[in-house]
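Suppose a classmate hands you a notebook page containing two proteins, each written out with its sequence and a corresponding row of C-alpha coordinates. How would you begin to make sense of it? This section walks through that situation. The first entry is reproduced here exactly as it would appear on such a page.
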Amino acid sequence: MRVYNALTAKIGGLLLVLTMVGTSLSAYAVSDCDMDNDNSTDAKCGGNDKDLDNDNVTDAAFSGNDKDMDNDHYTDAAFGGTDRDLDNDNNTDKYHGSVPSAAKK
Protein backbone atom coordinates (compact mmCIF):
# COMPACT_ATOMS: atom_id res chain seq x y z
CA MET A 1 0.00 0.00 0.00
CA ARG A 2 2.89 2.35 0.79
CA VAL A 3 4.32 1.92 -2.71
CA TYR A 4 0.89 2.57 -4.24
CA ASN A 5 0.48 5.77 -2.19
CA ALA A 6 3.95 6.99 -3.15
CA LEU A 7 3.31 6.30 -6.82
CA THR A 8 -0.08 8.00 -6.62
CA ALA A 9 1.54 11.07 -5.04
CA LYS A 10 4.19 11.22 -7.75
CA ILE A 11 1.66 10.93 -10.54
CA GLY A 12 -0.60 13.45 -8.84
CA GLY A 13 2.30 15.88 -8.55
CA LEU A 14 3.16 15.54 -12.21
CA LEU A 15 -0.44 15.98 -13.26
CA LEU A 16 -0.75 19.04 -11.03
CA VAL A 17 2.30 20.64 -12.60
CA LEU A 18 1.17 19.78 -16.10
CA THR A 19 -2.27 21.17 -15.26
CA MET A 20 -0.78 24.42 -13.96
CA VAL A 21 1.30 24.85 -17.08
CA GLY A 22 -1.57 24.16 -19.44
CA THR A 23 -4.58 25.53 -17.56
CA SER A 24 -5.27 28.45 -19.86
CA LEU A 25 -4.51 26.40 -22.96
CA SER A 26 -6.08 23.09 -21.99
CA ALA A 27 -6.80 21.91 -25.55
CA TYR A 28 -3.28 22.89 -26.57
CA ALA A 29 -1.75 21.33 -23.46
CA VAL A 30 -3.30 17.94 -24.15
CA SER A 31 -1.37 17.62 -27.38
CA ASP A 32 1.74 19.56 -26.30
CA CYS A 33 4.66 17.18 -25.83
CA ASP A 34 7.14 19.93 -24.92
CA MET A 35 5.46 21.69 -21.99
CA ASP A 36 8.60 23.54 -20.92
CA ASN A 37 9.52 24.62 -24.47
CA ASP A 38 13.09 23.33 -24.31
CA ASN A 39 12.92 21.58 -27.70
CA SER A 40 12.94 18.18 -26.02
CA THR A 41 9.96 15.78 -26.08
CA ASP A 42 8.57 15.32 -22.56
CA ALA A 43 8.76 11.88 -20.97
CA LYS A 44 4.96 11.80 -20.67
CA CYS A 45 4.90 11.61 -24.48
CA GLY A 46 7.61 8.98 -24.70
CA GLY A 47 10.51 11.41 -24.98
CA ASN A 48 13.62 11.90 -22.87
CA ASP A 49 12.74 15.16 -21.07
CA LYS A 50 12.23 14.28 -17.39
CA ASP A 51 13.04 17.79 -16.14
CA LEU A 52 9.90 19.82 -16.79
CA ASP A 53 10.99 22.80 -14.68
CA ASN A 54 14.41 23.03 -16.36
CA ASP A 55 16.51 23.08 -13.20
CA ASN A 56 18.82 20.28 -14.40
CA VAL A 57 17.43 17.78 -11.86
CA THR A 58 15.19 14.86 -12.88
CA ASP A 59 11.66 15.45 -11.59
CA ALA A 60 10.37 13.19 -8.80
CA ALA A 61 7.42 12.26 -11.00
CA PHE A 62 9.96 10.46 -13.19
CA SER A 63 11.80 8.78 -10.26
CA GLY A 64 14.24 11.65 -9.88
CA ASN A 65 15.23 13.79 -6.91
CA ASP A 66 13.44 17.04 -7.84
CA LYS A 67 10.49 17.40 -5.47
CA ASP A 68 10.35 21.19 -5.87
CA MET A 69 8.64 21.78 -9.19
CA ASP A 70 8.27 25.53 -8.73
CA ASN A 71 11.91 25.99 -7.65
CA ASP A 72 11.11 27.93 -4.47
CA HIS A 73 13.32 25.69 -2.28
CA TYR A 74 10.33 24.02 -0.55
CA THR A 75 9.33 20.39 -1.15
CA ASP A 76 5.96 20.22 -2.91
CA ALA A 77 3.04 18.77 -0.93
CA ALA A 78 2.48 16.14 -3.62
CA PHE A 79 5.85 14.68 -2.65
CA GLY A 80 5.39 14.82 1.13
CA GLY A 81 6.52 18.41 1.68
CA THR A 82 4.80 21.55 2.90
CA ASP A 83 4.68 23.62 -0.31
CA ARG A 84 1.03 24.08 -1.22
CA ASP A 85 1.62 27.22 -3.30
CA LEU A 86 2.96 25.90 -6.60
CA ASP A 87 2.40 29.11 -8.53
CA ASN A 88 4.20 31.20 -5.88
CA ASP A 89 1.44 33.79 -5.51
CA ASN A 90 1.57 33.63 -1.68
CA ASN A 91 -1.80 31.87 -1.51
CA THR A 92 -2.39 28.21 -0.76
CA ASP A 93 -3.43 26.48 -3.96
CA LYS A 94 -6.90 24.97 -4.03
CA TYR A 95 -5.54 21.75 -5.58
CA HIS A 96 -2.41 20.84 -3.66
CA GLY A 97 -2.51 17.06 -3.55
CA SER A 98 -4.86 16.04 -6.28
CA VAL A 99 -5.83 17.07 -9.76
CA PRO A 100 -8.85 19.29 -10.38
CA SER A 101 -11.74 17.51 -12.07
CA ALA A 102 -11.38 19.67 -15.19
CA ALA A 103 -7.87 18.31 -15.70
CA LYS A 104 -9.06 14.71 -15.61
CA LYS A 105 -11.11 15.11 -18.78
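The notebook's second entry, a different protein, reads as follows.
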Amino acid sequence: MLHYQGAVISSVRVNFPLGDQHSDVIGRLISQGIAKGAKRIELLLSHRIEDIGIFMNIYKQEFSFTLLSNADSLMYLHLQGCRIVTPTDFSGLKNLRTLVLHLVDVKYDMLQDLFSNSNIHLVDFTLNKCTFFYDLKIISTTLSHLNIVNCMVYTHEDINIIAPNLLSFEYTANSARRGHPLNIKAHMLSQFSYRGTEISTSVGFSGLKNVTTIVLYKLKECLQTRVLPLLFKECIQLKEVTIQKCRSIREVKITNPKLRHLKIIDCGIELPPYKITIEALNLSSFEYSGQRWIFHVTAPSLLKVFWNAAVSAKNRYSLGPIPTLQHIQNLAMITSHSQVRNSPVVGLKSEYAGFFPSDLKYVELHGCVPEDGLQAPTVIGLNVILFMKDLKMK
Protein backbone atom coordinates (compact mmCIF):
# COMPACT_ATOMS: atom_id res chain seq x y z
CA MET A 1 0.00 0.00 0.00
CA LEU A 2 1.46 3.35 -1.07
CA HIS A 3 1.18 6.32 1.31
CA TYR A 4 1.78 9.99 0.49
CA GLN A 5 2.31 12.93 2.80
CA GLY A 6 -0.14 15.85 2.66
CA ALA A 7 -2.54 16.50 -0.21
CA VAL A 8 -2.97 13.79 -2.85
CA ILE A 9 -3.35 14.37 -6.62
CA SER A 10 -5.46 11.60 -8.15
CA SER A 11 -5.34 12.72 -11.81
CA VAL A 12 -3.18 14.89 -14.07
CA ARG A 13 -4.47 15.98 -17.49
CA VAL A 14 -2.44 18.16 -19.86
CA ASN A 15 -4.33 19.19 -23.01
CA PHE A 16 -2.47 22.20 -24.37
CA PRO A 17 -0.34 22.98 -27.46
CA LEU A 18 2.99 22.77 -25.67
CA GLY A 19 6.18 22.43 -27.72
CA ASP A 20 9.72 21.22 -27.02
CA GLN A 21 10.49 24.57 -25.41
CA HIS A 22 7.93 23.72 -22.72
CA SER A 23 9.31 20.26 -21.92
CA ASP A 24 10.49 21.44 -18.52
CA VAL A 25 6.94 22.57 -17.70
CA ILE A 26 5.55 19.17 -18.62
CA GLY A 27 8.26 17.47 -16.60
CA ARG A 28 7.43 19.52 -13.52
CA LEU A 29 3.69 18.85 -13.87
CA ILE A 30 4.20 15.12 -14.13
CA SER A 31 6.77 15.01 -11.34
CA GLN A 32 4.42 16.94 -9.06
CA GLY A 33 1.56 14.57 -9.86
CA ILE A 34 3.71 11.49 -9.27
CA ALA A 35 5.02 12.88 -6.00
CA LYS A 36 1.41 13.31 -4.84
CA GLY A 37 0.34 9.79 -5.83
CA ALA A 38 -1.42 10.40 -9.17
CA LYS A 39 -3.23 7.28 -10.41
CA ARG A 40 -4.15 8.71 -13.82
CA ILE A 41 -2.10 10.83 -16.24
CA GLU A 42 -3.30 12.12 -19.63
CA LEU A 43 -0.70 13.95 -21.69
CA LEU A 44 -2.45 15.21 -24.85
CA LEU A 45 0.10 17.17 -26.85
CA SER A 46 -0.34 18.97 -30.18
CA HIS A 47 2.07 18.06 -32.97
CA ARG A 48 3.37 20.67 -35.42
CA ILE A 49 2.95 20.20 -39.19
CA GLU A 50 5.32 21.93 -41.61
CA ASP A 51 4.47 22.09 -45.32
CA ILE A 52 7.64 21.61 -47.42
CA GLY A 53 5.99 21.22 -50.81
CA ILE A 54 5.08 17.68 -51.81
CA PHE A 55 5.55 16.26 -48.32
CA MET A 56 4.45 17.30 -44.87
CA ASN A 57 6.85 17.18 -41.94
CA ILE A 58 5.20 16.31 -38.66
CA TYR A 59 7.09 17.32 -35.53
CA LYS A 60 6.11 15.58 -32.31
CA GLN A 61 7.48 16.35 -28.91
CA GLU A 62 9.73 13.77 -27.31
CA PHE A 63 8.50 12.12 -24.14
CA SER A 64 10.83 9.96 -22.08
CA PHE A 65 9.55 7.24 -19.78
CA THR A 66 12.33 8.32 -17.43
CA LEU A 67 9.81 10.85 -16.06
CA LEU A 68 7.69 7.91 -14.91
CA SER A 69 10.45 5.97 -13.16
CA ASN A 70 8.92 6.51 -9.72
CA ALA A 71 5.26 6.41 -10.79
CA ASP A 72 4.35 3.35 -8.74
CA SER A 73 0.86 4.72 -8.03
CA LEU A 74 0.03 5.23 -11.74
CA MET A 75 -2.67 2.90 -13.08
CA TYR A 76 -3.87 4.75 -16.24
CA LEU A 77 -1.64 6.48 -18.81
CA HIS A 78 -2.82 8.23 -22.00
CA LEU A 79 -0.19 9.73 -24.31
CA GLN A 80 -1.08 11.67 -27.45
CA GLY A 81 0.96 13.35 -30.18
CA CYS A 82 4.47 12.56 -28.97
CA ARG A 83 7.58 10.46 -29.64
CA ILE A 84 8.15 8.03 -26.82
CA VAL A 85 11.62 7.16 -25.57
CA THR A 86 11.91 4.05 -23.41
CA PRO A 87 15.24 3.62 -21.58
CA THR A 88 16.61 0.07 -21.64
CA ASP A 89 16.90 0.01 -17.85
CA PHE A 90 13.41 1.40 -17.23
CA SER A 91 11.75 -0.20 -14.19
CA GLY A 92 8.76 2.01 -13.33
CA LEU A 93 4.98 1.68 -13.87
CA LYS A 94 4.65 -1.33 -11.59
CA ASN A 95 0.91 -0.78 -11.12
CA LEU A 96 0.05 0.45 -14.62
CA ARG A 97 -2.99 -1.41 -15.94
CA THR A 98 -4.25 0.76 -18.84
CA LEU A 99 -2.14 2.34 -21.59
CA VAL A 100 -3.61 4.42 -24.43
CA LEU A 101 -1.34 5.65 -27.24
CA HIS A 102 -2.92 8.15 -29.67
CA LEU A 103 -1.08 9.70 -32.63
CA VAL A 104 2.16 8.22 -31.37
CA ASP A 105 5.14 7.01 -33.43
CA VAL A 106 5.65 3.43 -32.31
CA LYS A 107 9.30 2.45 -32.67
CA TYR A 108 10.42 -1.09 -33.41
CA ASP A 109 11.66 -1.97 -29.94
CA MET A 110 9.25 0.15 -27.89
CA LEU A 111 6.45 -2.38 -27.48
CA GLN A 112 8.90 -5.24 -27.13
CA ASP A 113 10.62 -3.47 -24.25
CA LEU A 114 7.27 -2.53 -22.73
CA PHE A 115 5.72 -5.99 -22.74
CA SER A 116 8.93 -7.84 -21.87
CA ASN A 117 9.39 -5.69 -18.76
CA SER A 118 8.61 -8.00 -15.85
CA ASN A 119 7.51 -5.05 -13.71
CA ILE A 120 4.68 -3.96 -16.05
CA HIS A 121 1.42 -5.92 -16.07
CA LEU A 122 -0.85 -4.24 -18.63
CA VAL A 123 -4.50 -5.30 -18.76
CA ASP A 124 -5.89 -2.80 -21.31
CA PHE A 125 -3.90 -1.53 -24.29
CA THR A 126 -5.03 0.83 -27.10
CA LEU A 127 -3.26 2.02 -30.25
CA ASN A 128 -5.25 4.82 -31.91
CA LYS A 129 -4.01 6.41 -35.16
CA CYS A 130 -0.48 5.36 -34.36
CA THR A 131 2.34 5.03 -36.90
CA PHE A 132 4.60 2.01 -37.39
CA PHE A 133 6.50 0.81 -40.47
CA TYR A 134 7.33 -2.74 -39.42
CA ASP A 135 5.64 -5.91 -38.22
CA LEU A 136 4.10 -5.29 -34.82
CA LYS A 137 4.48 -7.86 -32.05
CA ILE A 138 2.27 -7.78 -28.98
CA ILE A 139 3.28 -10.54 -26.59
CA SER A 140 1.75 -10.42 -23.12
CA THR A 141 0.54 -12.88 -20.52
CA THR A 142 -1.49 -10.27 -18.61
CA LEU A 143 -3.30 -8.41 -21.41
CA SER A 144 -7.10 -8.81 -21.32
CA HIS A 145 -8.39 -6.09 -23.68
CA LEU A 146 -6.76 -4.83 -26.89
CA ASN A 147 -7.88 -2.05 -29.25
CA ILE A 148 -6.08 -1.19 -32.51
CA VAL A 149 -7.93 1.66 -34.21
CA ASN A 150 -7.25 3.62 -37.42
CA CYS A 151 -3.55 2.77 -37.73
CA MET A 152 -2.41 3.26 -41.32
CA VAL A 153 -1.14 0.36 -43.45
CA TYR A 154 1.92 1.59 -45.36
CA THR A 155 3.32 -1.51 -47.08
CA HIS A 156 2.47 -4.88 -45.60
CA GLU A 157 2.93 -4.54 -41.85
CA ASP A 158 1.68 -7.61 -39.97
CA ILE A 159 0.31 -7.49 -36.45
CA ASN A 160 1.21 -10.56 -34.41
CA ILE A 161 -0.62 -11.10 -31.13
CA ILE A 162 0.33 -13.73 -28.58
CA ALA A 163 -1.78 -13.17 -25.49
CA PRO A 164 -3.05 -16.28 -23.69
CA ASN A 165 -5.35 -14.26 -21.39
CA LEU A 166 -6.76 -11.85 -23.98
CA LEU A 167 -10.56 -11.65 -23.67
CA SER A 168 -11.56 -8.93 -26.16
CA PHE A 169 -9.99 -7.45 -29.28
CA GLU A 170 -11.30 -4.56 -31.40
CA TYR A 171 -9.66 -3.77 -34.74
CA THR A 172 -10.60 -0.87 -37.03
CA ALA A 173 -8.82 -0.39 -40.34
CA ASN A 174 -7.76 3.12 -41.32
CA SER A 175 -10.42 4.74 -43.55
CA ALA A 176 -11.54 2.54 -46.46
CA ARG A 177 -8.16 0.89 -46.96
CA ARG A 178 -7.31 -2.73 -46.29
CA GLY A 179 -6.42 -3.61 -42.76
CA HIS A 180 -3.25 -5.14 -41.41
CA PRO A 181 -2.79 -8.90 -41.68
CA LEU A 182 -3.58 -10.20 -38.20
CA ASN A 183 -2.03 -13.31 -36.67
CA ILE A 184 -3.86 -14.04 -33.43
CA LYS A 185 -2.89 -16.60 -30.82
CA ALA A 186 -5.23 -16.03 -27.91
CA HIS A 187 -7.17 -19.12 -26.89
CA MET A 188 -9.18 -17.21 -24.26
CA LEU A 189 -10.41 -14.59 -26.74
CA SER A 190 -14.22 -14.43 -26.55
CA GLN A 191 -15.13 -11.03 -28.08
CA PHE A 192 -13.85 -9.86 -31.45
CA SER A 193 -14.85 -6.75 -33.42
CA TYR A 194 -13.54 -6.05 -36.92
CA ARG A 195 -14.11 -3.00 -39.11
CA GLY A 196 -12.51 -3.01 -42.56
CA THR A 197 -13.07 -3.82 -46.22
CA GLU A 198 -12.16 -7.51 -46.06
CA ILE A 199 -11.39 -10.08 -43.40
CA SER A 200 -11.25 -13.53 -45.03
CA THR A 201 -7.66 -13.33 -46.30
CA SER A 202 -6.03 -10.71 -44.06
CA VAL A 203 -7.32 -12.21 -40.83
CA GLY A 204 -9.15 -15.46 -41.40
CA PHE A 205 -10.86 -17.11 -38.46
CA SER A 206 -8.45 -19.88 -37.43
CA GLY A 207 -7.28 -17.85 -34.43
CA LEU A 208 -10.83 -17.20 -33.26
CA LYS A 209 -11.95 -20.72 -32.41
CA ASN A 210 -13.23 -19.82 -28.94
CA VAL A 211 -14.82 -16.49 -29.82
CA THR A 212 -18.45 -16.31 -28.68
CA THR A 213 -19.26 -12.73 -29.78
CA ILE A 214 -18.23 -11.19 -33.11
CA VAL A 215 -19.02 -7.88 -34.84
CA LEU A 216 -18.33 -7.45 -38.57
CA TYR A 217 -18.60 -3.85 -39.74
CA LYS A 218 -18.42 -2.34 -43.25
CA LEU A 219 -17.02 -5.37 -45.04
CA LYS A 220 -17.06 -5.09 -48.84
CA GLU A 221 -16.25 -8.69 -49.74
CA CYS A 222 -18.99 -11.23 -50.44
CA LEU A 223 -20.33 -12.56 -47.16
CA GLN A 224 -22.01 -15.65 -48.56
CA THR A 225 -18.99 -17.06 -50.41
CA ARG A 226 -15.97 -15.64 -48.55
CA VAL A 227 -16.93 -14.80 -44.98
CA LEU A 228 -19.87 -16.68 -43.46
CA PRO A 229 -18.78 -20.23 -44.42
CA LEU A 230 -15.37 -19.70 -42.79
CA LEU A 231 -16.88 -17.87 -39.83
CA PHE A 232 -19.25 -20.66 -38.81
CA LYS A 233 -16.74 -23.39 -39.65
CA GLU A 234 -13.85 -22.00 -37.59
CA CYS A 235 -15.66 -20.15 -34.78
CA ILE A 236 -17.39 -23.16 -33.33
CA GLN A 237 -18.36 -21.43 -30.06
CA LEU A 238 -20.22 -18.49 -31.62
CA LYS A 239 -23.30 -17.33 -29.74
CA GLU A 240 -23.71 -13.70 -30.81
CA VAL A 241 -23.14 -12.30 -34.33
CA THR A 242 -23.57 -8.71 -35.55
CA ILE A 243 -23.28 -7.90 -39.27
CA GLN A 244 -23.51 -4.15 -39.84
CA LYS A 245 -23.25 -1.97 -42.96
CA CYS A 246 -21.67 -4.73 -45.04
CA ARG A 247 -22.12 -4.10 -48.75
CA SER A 248 -21.81 -7.39 -50.64
CA ILE A 249 -24.68 -9.27 -49.05
CA ARG A 250 -27.24 -10.90 -51.33
CA GLU A 251 -28.42 -14.47 -50.98
CA VAL A 252 -27.38 -15.39 -47.44
CA LYS A 253 -27.78 -18.54 -45.40
CA ILE A 254 -26.93 -18.58 -41.71
CA THR A 255 -26.89 -22.01 -40.10
CA ASN A 256 -25.58 -22.49 -36.59
CA PRO A 257 -27.10 -24.58 -33.78
CA LYS A 258 -25.32 -22.62 -31.00
CA LEU A 259 -26.20 -19.11 -32.19
CA ARG A 260 -28.32 -17.22 -29.65
CA HIS A 261 -28.27 -13.59 -30.78
CA LEU A 262 -28.17 -12.28 -34.37
CA LYS A 263 -28.14 -8.70 -35.69
CA ILE A 264 -28.20 -7.73 -39.37
CA ILE A 265 -28.11 -3.93 -39.58
CA ASP A 266 -28.21 -1.70 -42.68
CA CYS A 267 -26.50 -4.15 -45.02
CA GLY A 268 -26.55 -4.35 -48.81
CA ILE A 269 -27.91 -1.81 -51.26
CA GLU A 270 -31.39 -1.13 -52.59
CA LEU A 271 -31.80 -3.85 -55.22
CA PRO A 272 -34.57 -6.36 -55.97
CA PRO A 273 -35.25 -8.37 -52.80
CA TYR A 274 -32.87 -11.21 -52.05
CA LYS A 275 -33.34 -14.07 -49.65
CA ILE A 276 -31.93 -14.53 -46.17
CA THR A 277 -32.29 -18.00 -44.69
CA ILE A 278 -31.72 -18.45 -40.97
CA GLU A 279 -31.59 -21.88 -39.37
CA ALA A 280 -30.67 -21.54 -35.71
CA LEU A 281 -32.39 -23.84 -33.25
CA ASN A 282 -31.21 -21.92 -30.16
CA LEU A 283 -31.60 -18.38 -31.49
CA SER A 284 -33.37 -16.32 -28.80
CA SER A 285 -33.11 -12.75 -30.19
CA PHE A 286 -32.98 -11.28 -33.69
CA GLU A 287 -32.53 -7.65 -34.77
CA TYR A 288 -32.93 -6.50 -38.36
CA SER A 289 -32.72 -3.08 -39.99
CA GLY A 290 -32.36 -2.57 -43.71
CA GLN A 291 -33.66 -2.82 -47.24
CA ARG A 292 -36.05 -5.25 -48.90
CA TRP A 293 -35.38 -8.89 -48.10
CA ILE A 294 -37.28 -12.14 -48.23
CA PHE A 295 -36.76 -14.11 -45.03
CA HIS A 296 -37.03 -17.80 -44.20
CA VAL A 297 -36.47 -18.28 -40.49
CA THR A 298 -36.33 -21.55 -38.60
CA ALA A 299 -35.77 -20.62 -34.97
CA PRO A 300 -38.13 -22.38 -32.54
CA SER A 301 -36.45 -20.74 -29.50
CA LEU A 302 -36.78 -17.18 -30.80
CA LEU A 303 -38.40 -14.94 -28.16
CA LYS A 304 -37.30 -11.37 -28.92
CA VAL A 305 -37.39 -9.50 -32.27
CA PHE A 306 -36.50 -5.92 -33.18
CA TRP A 307 -37.58 -5.06 -36.73
CA ASN A 308 -36.83 -1.77 -38.53
CA ALA A 309 -38.49 -1.65 -41.94
CA ALA A 310 -38.50 2.15 -42.22
CA VAL A 311 -35.03 2.41 -43.78
CA SER A 312 -36.70 2.78 -47.17
CA ALA A 313 -40.21 4.06 -47.87
CA LYS A 314 -40.28 1.66 -50.84
CA ASN A 315 -39.84 -1.35 -48.61
CA ARG A 316 -42.94 -3.43 -49.23
CA TYR A 317 -41.68 -6.27 -47.08
CA SER A 318 -42.24 -4.33 -43.91
CA LEU A 319 -43.36 -7.28 -41.78
CA GLY A 320 -40.65 -9.68 -42.92
CA PRO A 321 -40.84 -13.08 -41.22
CA ILE A 322 -42.76 -11.84 -38.18
CA PRO A 323 -46.14 -13.45 -39.07
CA THR A 324 -44.42 -16.86 -39.17
CA LEU A 325 -42.69 -16.53 -35.79
CA GLN A 326 -45.29 -17.99 -33.48
CA HIS A 327 -43.24 -18.18 -30.27
CA ILE A 328 -41.89 -14.65 -29.88
CA GLN A 329 -42.79 -12.81 -26.67
CA ASN A 330 -41.13 -9.42 -27.19
CA LEU A 331 -41.61 -7.49 -30.43
CA ALA A 332 -40.42 -3.99 -31.36
CA MET A 333 -41.09 -2.60 -34.84
CA ILE A 334 -40.35 0.63 -36.71
CA THR A 335 -42.33 1.23 -39.90
CA SER A 336 -43.10 4.20 -42.14
CA HIS A 337 -46.58 5.73 -42.20
CA SER A 338 -47.21 4.39 -45.69
CA GLN A 339 -46.39 0.89 -44.47
CA VAL A 340 -48.65 1.34 -41.46
CA ARG A 341 -51.56 2.48 -43.64
CA ASN A 342 -51.22 -0.63 -45.78
CA SER A 343 -50.81 -2.95 -42.82
CA PRO A 344 -53.75 -5.24 -41.96
CA VAL A 345 -53.24 -4.43 -38.27
CA VAL A 346 -54.34 -0.82 -38.61
CA GLY A 347 -57.59 -1.91 -40.22
CA LEU A 348 -58.57 -3.55 -36.92
CA LYS A 349 -60.04 -6.55 -38.72
CA SER A 350 -60.56 -9.61 -36.58
CA GLU A 351 -59.54 -11.97 -39.36
CA TYR A 352 -55.95 -10.76 -38.88
CA ALA A 353 -55.83 -11.72 -35.23
CA GLY A 354 -53.49 -14.58 -36.10
CA PHE A 355 -50.91 -12.08 -37.32
CA PHE A 356 -49.65 -11.69 -33.76
CA PRO A 357 -48.11 -14.78 -32.13
CA SER A 358 -50.16 -16.20 -29.28
CA ASP A 359 -47.23 -15.99 -26.82
CA LEU A 360 -46.63 -12.28 -27.39
CA LYS A 361 -46.32 -10.38 -24.09
CA TYR A 362 -44.72 -7.05 -25.02
CA VAL A 363 -45.09 -4.96 -28.17
CA GLU A 364 -43.63 -1.60 -29.13
CA LEU A 365 -44.54 -0.08 -32.50
CA HIS A 366 -43.06 3.14 -33.89
CA GLY A 367 -43.95 4.97 -37.09
CA CYS A 368 -41.71 7.38 -38.96
CA VAL A 369 -43.05 10.48 -40.72
CA PRO A 370 -41.08 10.92 -43.97
CA GLU A 371 -43.93 12.53 -45.91
CA ASP A 372 -43.70 15.97 -44.27
CA GLY A 373 -39.94 15.94 -43.80
CA LEU A 374 -39.93 15.11 -40.09
CA GLN A 375 -37.59 12.29 -39.24
CA ALA A 376 -38.31 11.89 -35.54
CA PRO A 377 -40.17 8.63 -34.81
CA THR A 378 -43.58 8.85 -33.17
CA VAL A 379 -45.20 6.12 -31.12
CA ILE A 380 -48.27 4.67 -32.81
CA GLY A 381 -48.60 1.48 -30.87
CA LEU A 382 -51.12 2.18 -28.09
CA ASN A 383 -54.36 1.54 -30.01
CA VAL A 384 -52.84 -1.46 -31.76
CA ILE A 385 -51.65 -2.95 -28.48
CA LEU A 386 -55.08 -2.50 -26.91
CA PHE A 387 -56.65 -4.08 -29.98
CA MET A 388 -54.31 -7.06 -29.70
CA LYS A 389 -55.14 -7.56 -26.04
CA ASP A 390 -58.83 -7.48 -26.91
CA LEU A 391 -58.30 -10.14 -29.56
CA LYS A 392 -56.47 -12.39 -27.11
CA MET A 393 -59.26 -12.11 -24.56
CA LYS A 394 -61.92 -13.23 -27.02
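A careful reader of the second entry would note: The longest helix spans residues 23-35.
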